[in-house]
Design brief:
The chain has 14 helices and 19 strands. About 45% of the residues are buried. The protein folds into four domains: about 5-125, Methylthiotransferase, N-terminal domain (Rossmann fold, 3-Layer(aba) Sandwich), CATH 3.40.50; about 140-255, Transcription Regulator spoIIAA (2-Layer Sandwich), CATH 3.30.750; about 290-375, Transcription Regulator spoIIAA; about 375-440, Nucleic acid-binding proteins (OB fold (Dihydrolipoamide Acetyltransferase, E2P), Beta Barrel), CATH 2.40.50. A six-stranded parallel sheet has the order 2-1-3-4-5-6, with helices on both faces. A five-stranded mixed beta barrel has the order 15-16-17-19-18. A three-stranded parallel sheet has the order 7-10-11, with helices on both faces. The longest helix is centred in the last third of the chain and has 23 residues, at about 350-370. The chain is an alpha/beta fold. The chain is globular.
Length: about 450
């Protein structure tokens, strides 16, 4: 009997990418092999996001295509997991009767229970059970791995649907995380990315032994063979000096911090329930640059939040100009179901939002381009990921500052190689493999 096949489409954040890897690892144990051909798959899976309206719209279009496959091949199973499924749990089967199984982010393991049950009648799994990630993962890259350190979030940002889709924050024990990373390193992983909705509040509520995110970073840094540690995302309120010092003192903790700003106006931040002010955010940036001067700082910014005036938006532009971010994810506000902001009057006209977004993006890219010039002429350590996406004759990788580097020279995916940087844009660096540095065992 031939192996059954699964096609999975992932929307949204790195946490979702990790959840998809865990789904594939679990399905591999059940005899399912991944396929790129959705039309021929025995199981069509969607791992969904509900942070922004566009993600919803894109997903529903894909789901309609899967329904067409099921009409041609009725034995095909369709599964929907992730935040969107959790957010519409009361209506998913009524709205989409062709779906066979639906499950929230905390119920990934229930997919296996459904597939191995005697009767494949439509089922939904949406309970919060804390961390349910003790599943094998099928990693997309051999030398890079995700590690989920916590589940859920205790923040109540007025625009965010995550607390209702992923539940209250639950931290995994320190010893368990150290053991998992040791296992990944033994399996050839050189770089890990720690995942959580608010990573730097990790450990505070662990019982009987509370801990801190800085302690976790130092414990992982001590693991022999681990070259790089990244994490996403911290919250400015919880970005303490001990974490910044871990960046400065731990060789494997990368020189990159993704610090979400969301808005540069303290008035708008209060409406967003972000629990910090413009001044506190700038203080955290100053602290990072004091201890890690070369650190790359990236951010998230929302344009057109309810009540945002031109003066508020100017304050956002002022912060962006003052900080000089190395990159930013920028979004036009769209209300999400079951959030406080969805009940606010969306009083910023769409054309104003679009115009503000254009001004913001221009400034972000100009400052990021200026910041990137500091790398030209330097030799950076690059973790090779494979051929360049736009020019297969060149190689592609990332430096410790999380910038994509396209370079000339021969290298193998998974290698750490020295690259002399010859050019820089707002988003990528270009360079040449430094044979001299490589020969000297860079």
């Amino acid at each position: 009997m031939s192996a059954r096949s699964v096609h999975i489409t992932t929307f949204g954040c790195q946490m979702n990418e990790h959840d998809s890897e865990r789904m594939l690892g679990m399905l591999d144990a059940l005899g399912y092999a991944p396929t790129e051909d959705r039309d021929a798959a025995d199981l069509i899976l969607f791992n969904t996001c509900s942070i922004r309206e566009k993600a919803d719209d894109r997903f529903v279009a894909h789901l309609r295509q899967a329904a067409a496959v099921k009409r041609r091949r009725p034995e095909t199973l369709i599964g929907v997991g992730g935040c969107w499924a959790q957010s519409v749990k009361d209506q998913v089967f009524r709205q989409f009767p062709f779906v066979d199984v639906a499950f929230g982010p905390g119920q990934v393991h229930k997919l296996a229970e459904f597939l191995t049950s005697d009767s494949l009648t439509a089922q939904g799994f949406f309970e919060f059970e804390g961390f349910t990630g003790h599943l094998p993962a099928r990693r997309a890259r051999d030398v890079q791995g995700w590690v989920q350190i916590s589940a859920g979030c205790n923040q109540r940002c007025s625009y965010c649907i995550v607390p209702s889709t992923r539940g209250r924050e639950v931290s995994r024990p320190l010893e368990e995380l150290v053991d998992e990373v040791r296992g990944l390193v033994a399996d050839g992983v050189r770089e890990v990315t720690l995942l959580g909705q608010n990573v730097n509040s990790w450990g505070v509520r662990l019982r009987p032994h509370p801990s801190t995110f800085a302690t976790l970073l130092r414990e992982l840094d001590a693991i022999e063979g681990l070259d790089r540690i990244r994490y996403t995302s911290p919250h400015p309120q919880d970005m303490k000096e001990d974490v910044v010092l871990a960046h400065a003192e731990c060789p494997s903790v990368c020189e990159h911090v993704h610090l979400p700003l969301q808005a540069g106006s303290s008035r708008i931040l209060k409406l967003m329930r972000r629990t910090y002010t413009r001044e506190h955010f700038l203080d955290r940036v100053a602290l990072i640059r004091e201890h890690v001067p070369d650190c790359a700082i990236t951010t998230d910014i929302i344009v057109g939040f309810p009540g945002e005036t031109e003066a508020d938006f100017q304050e956002t532009l002022e912060v962006v100009d003052e900080v000089g971010f190395d990159g930013a994810f920028t979004f036009i506000f769209s209300p999400r179901r079951d959030t406080e902001a969805a009940l606010m009057e969306d009083d910023v006209p769409h054309e104003v939002k679009v115009a503000r977004m254009e001004r913001l993006v221009e400034l972000v890219q100009r400052r990021a381009h200026e910041r990137a010039q500091r790398f030209v002429g330097r030799t950076l350590e690059v973790l090779v990921e494979g051929p360049s996406r736009h020019d297969p004759s060149r190689m592609r990788g990332r430096c410790r500052h999380n910038k994509v580097v396209n370079f000339e020279g021969l290298a193998v995916p998974g290698e750490l190689v020295p690259v002399e940087i010859t050019g820089a844009t707002s988003q990528t660096l270009t360079g040449e493999l430094s044979l001299v540095a490589r020969a000297a065992a860079f």
